[in-house]
Amino acid sequence: MAKAASSRSNNESGSKTGKSEPLIPNRERPDEPGRYPASKDELLEFYRQMLLIRRFEEKAGQLYGLGLIGGFCHLYIGQEAVAVGIQSALDGDKDSVITGYRDHGHMLAYGLDPKVIMAELTGRDAGISKGKGGSMHMFSTEKKFYGGHGIVGAQVPLGTGLAFGHKYNEDGGVCVAYFGDGASNQGQVYEAFNMAELWKLPIIFVIENNQYAMGTSVNRSAAEDQLFRRGESFRIPGIQVDGMDVLAARGATETALEWVRSGKGPIILEMKTYRYRGHSMSDPAKYRSREEVQSVRDKSDPIEHVKRELADAGVAEDDLKAIEKEIRKIVNEAADYAETAPEPEPEELYTDVLVGKY
Ligand SMILES: Cc1ncc(C[n+]2csc(CCOP(=O)(O)OP(=O)(O)O)c2C)c(N)n1
Ligand SMILES: [Mg+2]
Questions:
Q1: Whose CA is nearest to atom 20 of ligand 1?
Q2: CA–centroid distance, residue 281 to ligand 2 (Å)
Q3: What is the pTM assigned to this prediction?
Q4: 180 Cβ inside 6 Å of ligand 1
Q5: Ligand 1, atom 2, residue with closest C-alpha
Q6: Where are the domains of the chain?
Q7: What is the pLDDT of residues 89-106, one digit of tens each?
Q8: How many DSSP H helices and E strands does the chain contain?
Q9: Topology classification of domain 40-285+293-341
Q10: CA nearest to 78, candidates 246, 325, 241
Q11: Which Pfam families does the UniProt entry name for this protein (predicted)?
């Protein structure tokens, strides 16, 4: 099988859907994934969810600018198709998710209430972590969403532990551990890969390759910039996916889930994507040109992509406008709520510090 992005530099996004190479000797390969054949209703739902993330993140950026959100804030704009495509394939009752600090989109794609997420951003008691976690430390054990982690790469061994828990408890769940291209250069990632394959743990390692780690491009920092190959030494297969195409993301996730659920151990999905905004709200973005960003927006925007699919499926422009209106209302209400909800009482400083006695 041909590698998806063989003729492109890794600095470009928009490689074609899920192809993988038979790189590891004597190792069965996952099936070649296809684009998910979504129904019109499913396509509409993907559009809705991606638009919700985009408008939510734009609003979060505005509230940050007004000083209503403090600390760090990393926006997910541009990467929406990854979280929406992947999360839509998961079993919310069984599967667990863990990610880094760029986490609002994953929470929204998991169906968490935008009000509760926005209230966390503004540090209010009604926030999902009672206003004590902020942008980077959102958590919902009920939804099996285990953060929100500010330490780059930390979620990879933690996710491997979650996968160990799934296997040990025989609960049929799979862990999805998201991390970035920058994180993929860390040593702890490879210790986790080794254990995960050795113990055949049910985990999908999702590398969200948005081409940059803060201001450093993949090509400047990665000796092997085809990140789907990073599991080879551990005999973990990898698939490179067009992360700007929600149907490709969903299709590859189906393939990965089939692999993992059938007991074959971990798998890597490299999602080729792009972030339009700076690394965080305080990034002056001097390491890339405006033209580069604009060119990705023009050629590969994930929301425009689905809009075209919807038009082909016969959905009227007015129906899309109605969804846009509905989403703006949800986001405005979330912002109003997050601006007016009370702050936590000082006593909250002493809660949730330890889970219990050891
Ligand atoms: C262990 C550690 N080292 C460095 C940092 C500072 N830092 C925060 S984000 C980041 C870049 C990570 O980039 P990537 O993994 O590509 O994720 P992205 O921000 O692109 O989503 C760095 C170096 C940190 N938070 N933790
Ligand atoms: Mg990155």
A1: 213
A2: 15
A3: 0.94
A4: yes
A5: 152
A6: 40-285+293-341
A7: 999 999 999 999 999 999
A8: 11, 7
A9: Rossmann fold (3.40.50)
A10: 246
A11: E1_dh
